[in-house]
Amino acid sequence: MAMLMMKKTRMVPFLTCWLLVISQVHTDQDIGDSLSWSEEEVAVVESCRQEAASLEERMRIADSFTHQGNQLSAQGMHHHAVLKWEIATTCDNRSNVPWNNMANSFFAMGNLSAATAAAEISFSIKADHMSSTTLGNAYRAHKMYERAEKTFLAGIKYCLDNKDRHEHPFWSLAMLYWDQGDYIEFLKYSKLGLDHLSRPECVETAEEQVPCHIPDFEIDLMTRVYEASVDLGKFLASHGRYQEAETNLEWAEYVAETYPAERLDVQLVRKHLTCLKCAADNTQHRSPCDSDLDACRASWRDTNGRYLRMMAVRAMGCEWRHREEDVRDLERIMMSPNMTALLNHTTEFYFECEKGRVCGAGAQPPLHMWGLPMSLESVLVMGKVQPLQLVDRMLVDGPPPQWAYPTWNPSIGTVLRIGLLSSDLLRDHPVGNMMRHVLHLHDLSRMDVTVFLVHESQRYAASRVENEHVLGEVKFRMIGRGPHVTRFFDAQESVEGADIVNSAGICILFDLIGYTADHRQDIFALRPAPVQVHYHGYMGSTGAPWIQSYVADRWIAPPEHANFFSEKLALMPECFLGPSHRLSFQFAGNEERDFSEKLHTELRKEEGLPPEGPVICYFNQHFKLDPPTFKIWTDAIQKLVSFNSSAHPTLWLLQGSPISHRNLKREFQSAGLPGENLVIAKRVLVKTHIRRASLCDLAVDTPMYNSGATGADTLYAAVPLLHIPGLKVPFLLVPVLVLVLVLVLLLPSIPPSTSYA
């Protein structure tokens, strides 16, 4: 295919993207010389390139080739369609239509990079409903969720500003929120999309019938609207919020009446609406519908409700609009007989949605539940629920294999073989950074140490010669990521991983993951080693019968609370953590950046902080946050401003998820604070993070789940940490880091004359 170059004045700013798109048509899709412009088409392109024809004629030619490309694309001939659209863009590069169509064809051909490049060009020409939808979906496919959200919102703004009726940017944004488990925003933008529907409304009366075709994607989305409305309506009804419940159920009724789908049960919705009316009216006297009302209430309070089970997603995303209801539901679930049902496995409630998948984007129960107020007994129960799921999923194909265990006799000099299973060692991760210096401190004359790796990046780091001084003579074996909660469980995959451990002759196998991301409890459940120990990666009891011991200290596992741990406690004399920040600066691969020579203002600008004013930092994961604590912070910031109107206090948070950023910004602004004073710090290597943390004036902590390794990083950066004692004993992590921490100066007592410059 001919590569015809246009004048630079006409190509800017499209030249780079154009070359990328065209080159990928050749290489990725393997288009040969047979797919090329005809001689007549080459002449047309040359004429357009030299501007030999008038503007009107070039526009006519572009429209013609755009139409030809559309016809070819409709027939599935995407390669040929792209050639036609290339001619259209050459003759008239002011239209975004051929670029947008080209992006959609690249999507169909599986070329996401080329699709994104073409969509970005289309969006740069005109940020309308069409280009924003295509580009937003490209970003969504790349998992660039915040960029996708901004792009969809740009398309929505275009529709609103121009009174343009197009549902696609609204519904694309709604689906983004659905993927993130945000029912409230999903329903909001789904309804707005209906208000801006571009197709004719389907009307059918006795006098008039207007036939219309409803696209499959619209039926699919409206099915989700129905399910979300019913789930949310029942959830609200269970907490006596009848008016809000009625609004959601009426939407479900409308969808069920309007759209032809098997799963839309209008009679069921009407039954719940009738029950709502009875519940609202039935305050003192029993009404004729009491029997149905009792059945409805049982359905509303069902712990299998999808929205109820998404409390882990809401905790992770700082979605606090139903926080009080979540706390009450958690208390109800953990009370007898619900707790007994959980332990006896007579209910399907697993803090998940269906078939082993967690609702929403990446929530990891029970870890992400710990930001909620729970008793020690509840922590243990939530740990015990997880093994019930694992055993069920793994024993479908029959009983697990029986392993032959190695023997160890120190009296005859037998080498003790120790295994460490971790997804974080050798990665720039708090657990990995803490544990680095532990590896090479093992006495390899008396023991053999093998680290079982989960990520390929871990294997790469272990193979680097530069890291030998940190790793010592430790062995490494790869077992892979395995079936953690975002995938289906595969019993054979678990057996293969356990066989790798057992074949290494491991006597003591340490678990450094627990129930955090990429966990391999499926391997521990098969008991490949005679002694299996829980340590470090997960604070609290695993509740797993295959874990015999828990290495901790008196702070996170006080002996007087041993009954709240399923494992036998093995307490370290002082601290169970092993901070190794000194070695963090020796580990190969950390980027070299010299902060010491930069001015303070330049550092703040680089990190997106205002040039002056106090900086209050919180660098932990967002699921640890709770509404009362966040309100204390915003109140303190408001007091700082009242003491000194020229102060510009900033709350600096570590990067979380797109949904948590959105929700925290909403909470911050609802407290009367400007959104620009809430700054998100990008995730960087620990070496860089410790250096930039010195910009903080004060680090704050959360009582539901204290700072751990992140707190150690902050203290190592010489930043004072305002600690609030944990409400749950296993999460008293800061006292582990500093046995005595006394802050005489508290935020509310700062005098008005204090300077914050």
From TrEMBL:
InterPro entries assigned: OGT, OGT/SEC/SPY_C, TPR-like_helical_dom_sf
Superkingdom classification of source: Eukaryota
Pathway note: Protein modification; protein glycosylation
First and last residue of the signal peptide: 1-27
Pfam families xref list: Glyco_transf_41 (PF13844)
Keywords from the named record: Membrane, Repeat, Signal, TPR repeat, Transferase, Transmembrane, Transmembrane helix
Annotated TM spans: 729-747
O-GlcNAc transferase C-terminal domain residues: 402-586, 597-726
One of the GO biological process terms: protein O-linked glycosylation
Any GO MF annotation of the entry: protein O-acetylglucosaminyltransferase activity
Entry keyword annotation includes Signal: yes
PANTHER family assigned to the protein according to its UniProt record, in alphabetical order: UDP-N-ACETYLGLUCOSAMINE--PEPTIDE N-ACETYLGLUCOSAMINYLTRANSFERASE 110 KDA SUBUNIT
Designated name of the protein: O-GlcNAc transferase C-terminal domain-containing protein
Native species: Guillardia theta (strain CCMP2712)
